[in-house]
């Protein structure tokens, strides 16, 4: 009998932020699959698992190996940082699923970096928001910039995933330049690095300061909307409850 | 000594989707505060707590009572469905916090309905997405429509919170009419109702079908982007991994 393929959002990293449902899915699995960094976060916690890792760019190969483990009778947990569906592996797994009709797939959600990072910064996402990845590995850069500009025009709070990498060291600055053409340099922004992991750090700053911030691939970036304020150390987007105002 | 005020995202409802960190925050609290529906989800699980509920529209009163419990020495968990920051109470609590400097606030994130609902439908959020609430209680309707239209123009996947209520029975239809002016009627959409609770149901449908769907306040709505497809029973937005295509 074929095993079950679980696509599991493990949350930002620490055990306390992984749901019991996600924990149970990993426990039920014989094989732990995923990008090396995330699998390494879990190996100590689940020492009895067979481990299946591939490099970051070999997503399809990794997914097919996971399906083959399941087809061979071993349930497999394909683990994703944060949520399983937000820039995670759920989509590719379900695209491939019709080729492996004997394998049942279950997607287990998790706490995504937008929510986990927001909690560290305070409450930046209280109003309508847009989540945009700055990685152009799979998306044309012009699409990314267009979305960023439309999100600013709509006064969405914006959460940026993958703000930087070795090959894209200046993308966050380029994004900020586009935002600065539309928003005040005093717009409140925030960054969180290593959310829920050792070395977690955060900072609330202005859009002008964000432009020169050196983000790395472990950083999540938040750009407030026109109402977002700094309250003490926190980044807070009011929703309008307080004075009954509309908007 | 003052108690701690925890603002806790409990996830969509079932215990298996509440993080250990959220569970621990509730256990550490003497008082359980929140909107009645969410507190009722937790009363059985935490029977020894003092309960503080107010009606849905009395958010500020509820927050002030929670601060006063903490100021009086009792730690309090203000519970929110899904995440604490996505249309939750974290923002208002942090807006009021400077008035209660003796009370420490901690925001505990959770699995928001966008992620939990997406996992039920398959993988609709795999690409950049926008989260928009259709409630005009605190936001002018024209702001909501503008955001919806800009999100469609940017080809974002769109997740709609609060798609309907007794007073706003036709808002989802109105939203779909605006989307139909910009997107094909065949655009793939999905709804999930009672996510992670008894009576959970979901359905993948076209935008044209969504227009006439009777959503209620326990429904979360997903509108795919131009690439979103139906694969078997699932709603899937490809990210482009598979054939190395860009976009």
Automatic annotation (TrEMBL), chains A, B:
Residues 5-210 form the Tetrapyrrole methylase domain. The keyword Phosphoprotein does not apply. Keywords: Cobalamin biosynthesis, Methyltransferase, S-adenosyl-L-methionine, Transferase. It comes from the Bacteria. GO terms for molecular function: methyltransferase activity. InterPro entries: 4pyrrol_Mease, 4pyrrol_Methylase_sf, 4pyrrole_Mease_sub1, 4pyrrole_Mease_sub2, Cbl_synth_CobJ/CibH_dom, Precorrin_MeTrfase. SUPFAM superfamilies: Tetrapyrrole methylase. One of its GO terms (biological process) is cobalamin biosynthetic process. Pathway: Cofactor biosynthesis; adenosylcobalamin biosynthesis. PANTHER family: COBALT-FACTOR III C(17)-METHYLTRANSFERASE-RELATED. This is Precorrin-3B C17-methyltransferase. The lineage of its organism: Bacteria, Bacillati, Bacillota, Clostridia, Lachnospirales.
């Amino acid at each position: 009998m074929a095993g079950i393929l679980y696509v599991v959002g493990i949350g930002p990293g620490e055990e306390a932020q992984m749901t019991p449902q996600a924990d149970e899915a990993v426990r039920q699995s014989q094989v732990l699959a995923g990008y090396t960094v995330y699998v390494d976060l879990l190996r100590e916690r689940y020492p009895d698992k067979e481990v299946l890792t591939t490099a970051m760019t070999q997503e399809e190969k990794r997914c097919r190996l996971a399906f083959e483990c399941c087809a061979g009778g071993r349930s497999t947990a394909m683990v994703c940082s944060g949520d399983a569906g937000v820039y995670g592996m759920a989509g590719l797994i379900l695209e491939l699923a019709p080729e492996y009709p004997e394998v049942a797939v279950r997607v287990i959600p998790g706490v995504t970096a937008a929510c986990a990072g927001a909690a560290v910064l305070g409450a930046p996402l209280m109003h309508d928001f847009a989540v945009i990845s700055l990685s152009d590995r799979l998306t044309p850069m012009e699409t990314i910039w267009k979305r960023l500009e439309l999100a600013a025009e709509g006064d969405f709070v914006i959460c940026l995933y993958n703000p930087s990498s070795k090959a894209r060291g200046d993308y966050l600055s380029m994004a900020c330049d586009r935002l600065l053409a539309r928003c005040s340099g005093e717009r409140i922004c925030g960054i969180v690095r290593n959310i829920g992991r050792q070395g977690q750090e955060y900072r609330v700053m202005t859009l002008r300061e964000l432009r020169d911030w050196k983000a790395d691939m472990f950083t999540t970036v938040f750009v407030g909307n026109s109402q977002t304020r700094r309250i003490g150390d926190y980044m807070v987007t009011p929703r309008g409850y307080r004075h009954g105002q509309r908007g």
